Amino acid sequence: MTFLQKSASYKLPAGWHKAFYTLWLGCFITGMGYSMTMPFISLFISDLGNYSKLQINLYSGLAFAMTFIAQAIVSPYWGNLADRKGRKLMCMRASGVMALTITLTGLAPNAIYIVVMRFIQGAFSGYINNATALIAGETPRQRSGWVMSQMMTAGTAGNLVGPLLGGALSSFFGNWLGGAWGYRIPFFITGFLMFLVFLGTTFLVHEEFTPISREKMKPMGEIMKGLPSVKLIVVMFITTMLVQSSTMSIDPIVSLYAKSMMPNGKNVALVAGVVAATPGLGTLLAASKIGHKMDEVGPLRVLRIGLVVGFILFIPMALTNNPWVLAGLRFLLGIASAGMLPAAQTVLTLNTPKESFGRIFSYNQSFQAIGAVLGSLMGSTISGLSNYATVFWVTGFTLLLNFLLVLIFAWGISYRK
Q: In whole angstroms, what is the distance from residue 204 CA to residue 213 CA?
């Protein structure tokens, strides 16, 4: 019996399936849109002016980081608005502005323009966050784990496909049109796809929501006091930050680490690409199964197992000298990751009243954005001061610390149906 067949007994709202598939596809395209331009952003910037190597690296880093910095700053405001006006409106706002900013980025005359557009994109982002909160509020809690896993799978799949598609498009159009246009066309295509997401969300998604005036909405402090366990919510925020940080600490240096293992090897770029992509593949393959298991045994148990397995896997990663062994270990890490962030989001879903979903999930997104920035800085800094293996050691112990926090502050808390 499939999930959709089982869910019939839980009286899913009318139009739930249409909304779920629309939001899933929207999250997939959003994840793809964020990652599609990253493989060639530095090349695009270098074609926009006579920049030095230092300037190109600086502007590329800023273009990457600005999106997450803006998310961390602005997300709580959008979460407040989501609890007053509804999550669907926030999804429309995020997809609409993202369609516009990505398209305008394709018209960039210089590097500063790209950095500014990326900041604006981050400031108005939040599609995946609000789509997750929307479908969580419309789904019976007995199936929250599966739904959270599927929504994460959408973004993960998009992040996997994005760089491959972006690289292929920029190469194809670069050979066909020549010059910087090869880098501009993927922005226009992504902008058009995000416009389709905006239309789909507008016309195919229905949300059962009654707008609340600012005066009648409970203050965040009052909501936090009324939660079953404030410490548990805070620990989930920290978990989101640390897990995201552990992922991003490796991303900036994983290709260089793979290259250092094969100094005289051929097809270094291909091997590095495989090593970079395997965690996402592992998450994709395992997410549905782990989501079902989460609904059976509870998200906290799955989270604890995922953190321990993640910590253990980082030990051989730091010791290996074989890129293919590293790829296999990162594939297993992707499976463990399917039990980390979705589990944390499921705990938030099951321990938060629906009227405050927007704010709780927006704070969670802020912590996730902070984790992305901290992780990137940590990976680059540690590898610069020490070596690549040290990054894996530090990241592994970060997950161990996370496990201890969950064990201490979530002890005795049962899975809430």
A: 26
Give Cα 18 distance to the centre of its chain: 23
Check: pTM over 0.90? Answer yes or no: no
Instruction: Identify the sign of the CA torsion 39, 40, 41, 42.
Output: positive
In the chain, the largest separation of any two C-alpha atoms, in whole Å, equals 67
Q: Which residues contact 23 (CB under 8 A, 6 or more apart)?
A: 91, 131, 134, 135, 151, 201, 205
Portions of the chain given CATH number 1.20.1250.20: 15-212, 218-412
**pLDDT mean values, one per 10 residues, the chain (417 residues):** 47 83 95 76 82 80 83 87 90 96 93 93 90 87 83 84 77 71 86 96 90 73 73 91 87 73 70 77 87 89 94 94 90 90 88 79 87 83 84 94 90 52
Cα–Cα distances in Å, from 7 out to 144, 347, 352? 11, 20, 22
Q: Which CATH architecture fits 15-212?
A: Up-down Bundle (1.20)
Q: Considering the domain 218-412 in this protein, what is its CATH number?
A: 1.20.1250.20
